[in-house]
Amino acid sequence: MAEIVSLHKDKDEAGGILLSMQDEGVLRLTLNNPPANALSIALMEALTAELDRAGSDKSVRVVVIAAAGKLFSAGHDLKEMTAHRGDEDGGRAFFEKTMRLCADLMLKITHLPKPVIAEINGLATAAGCQLVASCDLAICTDTSTFCTPGVNIGLFCSTPMVAVTRAAHRKQAMEMLLTGETIDASTAKDFGLVNRIVPKEYLTQVVMKYAATIAAKSPLTLKIGKEAFYRQIEMPLEEAYDYAAQVMVENMLNVDAEEGICAFLQKRHAEWKGEA
Fold first, then answer.
1. What is the tens place of the pLDDT at every residue in 144-175?
2. Which of 61, 94, 130, 266 is surrounded by the fewest CB atoms within 10 Å?
3. Going from the N-terminus, what domains does the chain have, and what CATH number goes with each?
4. What is the pTM of this model?
């Protein structure tokens, strides 16, 4: 396994707030902002920078976002935000910066030409739940929990709502947003927030198996498919079929589709040449 690298390390910190490790096409990014892995400005900037790098790095096929400690992420750093209420504008500029950066981060995950898998062990709340919902796949432990609790403190989870309502069923998403109550892993799977639930001791093993399976596919095909998935899902049915049909035509004409089909017919392993 490749060496773990500490990123965006402050001078008073023993380790970086984001840890990076890459092995055989899989880039693992580990939130390391204890105790709650809050999505501070620094952590969101670090994540965004790493995703930018991953997007242009041909050696990266799949990205995994995990977390150190007992929580996946408790969302925005409320202490950091509250500290700016004393600013001349009451904190407006800082709040706007925080929400814009968060939105850009979530969009970066969606637009990344590589699949992103969330590996959740522990609580994912508010913007932490938003991060889970924004990833392409999510795998959690059987003791993980999820919530959008802003309503409990007078702050409706409006930005987490964007990702959650696109991952969970509409009424279940509204239930989470209106009650602010915590749901367990089984309920999160029923709602559509996560794909798989596994025992804690097997979490990383299962996630990395998924990542390795996906990393073995054509990177060009994955790029085409991921972009098409998110574009068509917002379209009316007929428009979606028209768009998807054109994507299939263009996909058929690219080098990896030709190679993959020939390899299948010749009963051999494909050798991918296309780049994401």
1. 999 999 999 999 999 999 999 999 999 999 99
2. 266
3. 5-215 (3.90.226.10), 219-265 (1.10.12.10)
4. 0.93
